[in-house]
Amino acid sequence: MTCKASVFTASIITLFIISLFQDVYCYYWLHMPPGPWSLPVIGSIHQIDPKQPHRSFKKLSLKYGGILSIRMGLRDRIVYITDLDLINKIFFDQRTSDRPPLNVFKYLTKDIDGIGSSSYGNNFKKQKHLIVNAINTIRNTSAQHKIEKIMKQYLRRMSESEGESFDPKESIIELTCSLFSSLVYGSDYNGFNDPELQTIISNHKTVMDCISPFHPLNIMSLFWWIPNKWLRGFYKCIKDRDIIITRKCYQTKKINSEDKNHQENIINILLTEHDIHEKQDIKNLIMSAWTVFLAGSESVRSLCLWTLQNLGLYTQMQNRIYHDVQTVVEENSFPNIQQKHELPYTCAFILETMRVCQANVLGIPHCTSADIQIDNNVIPKGTMIMLGFWDNLNNSKQWAEATKFNPDRFLDENNKLIKYQTLNSFIVFGKGHRMCPGSSITLDLMFLFVTALVKCFLVELHLKDGEKIDTNGQFSFGLEPSPYKIRLTKRNNINHDNFL
């Protein structure tokens, strides 16, 4: 054996020994939760399917139990929890309510403590209170007007494709980014081809790719120090974002229009309706508003895509929604958020879509701010925790016939909508300290999307002979449908010109 071969062999053996000692230290000295043994450098990432990570974690949880730990690449061990009782404890424990210091978050926020990345504490609680109040103000004032205007633009565009089969993915991201640009910044684009909106959409795609826990930038810190395509795209995206946000905030401060609907947006409320003068507080709120835009547009985008697929898959359910909408909403009137209580089945359909097709299958990562003792296991301070949202929302222990799409599970014996907050296992929006602040407006948006779309069009899936729809979806940051095509047919008993 040559000298070089000997050195190489010794290096490999050394790496395996180091990896073994790291695992032994974590399992038997620190008493971290059980999990698979790690390989050098890559850890146990080879056991996780990047397209279906939630299913890979489910297999691991069946072997190691409701709480396990695993090393992903060169990062420290993460803890993955599927036990529902433990998940609910995590939601309400201040010691597990921080966010992990992912490299991407560090560069996204530039050390500004926005609501998405801020550690749990007084600053976070203050920002969340202001964000929730701003969202509620929008819901009670301009949301209907803004959503209706942009939805009509979307429906007019869809009418141009009537009878043709098409992939709805691009039109949906244009819709959702336009909606949240209006709600958060007051943007009033003339159409979905506006150059600024297209830049926002391009940046949105880049950011969502990069913040996935399984993205190379998050798994291998080395990629932050060497030139690569991910880093170039990411830095350009942040530069474009900062220019657009600065311009939006400047425009907001200069607005003197009498159009109240235009003035009422989240950034305007945060900057002008609260007595905030500290420069850092203002920066924090601006970052929080951008976080609302990013998280809101992404979650609603995924939900809209799943909704279109489910409307096409379950035609009888679509017909029931249409019949109810025709009964409640006047012929040439646009649906109204206030009509939700009159359309319980539509709301149940939306909740069931959220349950079965949960976009955020692994939750937003938490991080411990202190050592945590759970039974015989210890989660050290600074450990990232990921939660099995998908596993619990599709678990037969929590839901009867969990794999069956059944909106009626959200209706009581009187056909009234069951409040999802009363369902312990409905964790779509999270709970406790880090619960999604935009849950209510998300449901408002989805309600108007479904009712307006079904009122105008019959939604059908376009499948080739023998083709079957893939209902498993594919993972990026969250879970979204695999590519599919739909065909829209105009409803005969509506005057589209008057309605739109």
Automatic annotation (TrEMBL):
GO terms assigned for molecular function: heme binding; iron ion binding; steroid 17-alpha-monooxygenase activity
Biological processes, Gene Ontology terms: hormone biosynthetic process; progesterone metabolic process
Cofactors demanded by this protein: heme
Alphabetically ordered keywords of this record: Heme, Iron, Membrane, Metal-binding, Monooxygenase, Oxidoreductase, Transmembrane, Transmembrane helix
Gene3D superfamilies assigned to the protein according to its UniProt record, in alphabetical order: Cytochrome P450
A Pfam short name: p450
SUPFAM superfamilies the UniProt entry points to: Cytochrome P450 (SSF48264)
Membrane spanning residue stretches: 7-30
Binding annotation for heme: C436
Similarity annotation: Belongs to the cytochrome P450 family.
Name under which the protein is recorded: Cytochrome P450
